[in-house]
Write a structure and sequence with these properties.
Layout (H helix, E strand, L loop, with lengths): L2 E3 L6 E3 L2 E3 L9 H13 L4 E3 L12 H10 L5 H4 L1 E6 L18 H15 L4 E6 L8 H14 L2 E7 L3 H14 L4 E7 L11 H8 L2 E5 L10 H7 L8 H7 L2 H17 L3 H10 L8 E2 L4 H12 L4 H10 L8 H4 L1
Parallel strand pairs: 3-4, 3-10, 4-5, 5-6, 6-7, 7-8, 8-9
Antiparallel strand pairs: 1-2
Helix pairs in contact: 2-4, 4-5, 6-7, 11-12
Length: about 325
Amino acid sequence: MEYTQLGRTGLKVSRLVLGTMNFGPQTDEADSHAIMDAALDAGVNFFDTANVYGWGENKGRTEEIIGTWFAKGGGRRDKVVLATKVYANMGPDGEAWPNHDKLSAVNIRRAVDASLKRLRTDHIDLYQFHHVDRNTPWEEIWQAIDVLVQQGKVLYAGSSNFAGWHIAQANEAAARRGSLGLVSEQCLYNLVERRAEMEVVPAAQGYGLGVIPWSPLHGGLLGGAIRKEREGGGARTTSGRSAEALADPALRARIQAYEDLLDKHGLEPGEVALAWLLTRPGVTGPITGPRTLEQLGSALRAVELELGEELLASLEEIFPGPGPSPEAFAW
């Protein structure tokens, strides 16, 4: 496994991030534990989750599964850089109760303590804002985070789904307080969806944030979706982002060209999609969300995959980037 610094910090993290969103809803506790053990054995030390994972009536379930895994001991917690998120409503008994969501100081304090209890740990390494809160001033947010840092409950703060100017606004507010500010941004970024390159990635680089792409396969679309559809194994392409994409004739043609290109090179589409992100400026590591050990193994192979200049150029032809702003939209 390769490691890199998380943004401008001294924290070393693996170049592959283990996403846990499927733990609970898709993968039971025993299999989730097996996947985490295999990931750790392979050197993956960066685990990502969120307080809302588990979804619906089972919100928080994913953190609980990670907590029972930590409780097995064997140095599991000490070896892992643990990232979770706050924003979604976590009201009692599943109710959307006031002050149980977003980024008020009240909710941040409550949410941290609840996550720590579910995760069975005394600290969160990277506490991420799952979405920007347009109604809470950054002075309030950073005051709450500074208290948590002083208490040792949180070490670093990160963002997710922020615009470039949100990153700038957050870190300028932190600088005025003498606080560290955001050290990472978790954003939608993959071969199909490259709009982050216009402003989010440059803002992250400018302020020293590590970029952590989520949905690197665009909901399975870049994992050989057309081939699986043809072979009758493409259940994930029947809904969500993949279904919408494959219904678009122009995008479907690009996905077909992508799969044909990789067939010619004898490469697996999903592994190439991950490996491509590892070549992108500013990227710390993509999040892989395996439901099975087999899927984890495929993601691990991507870290060792070297993409030649010719292949990278061919990928650029199929999935051209938007270019930097303001040139991307100004002229």
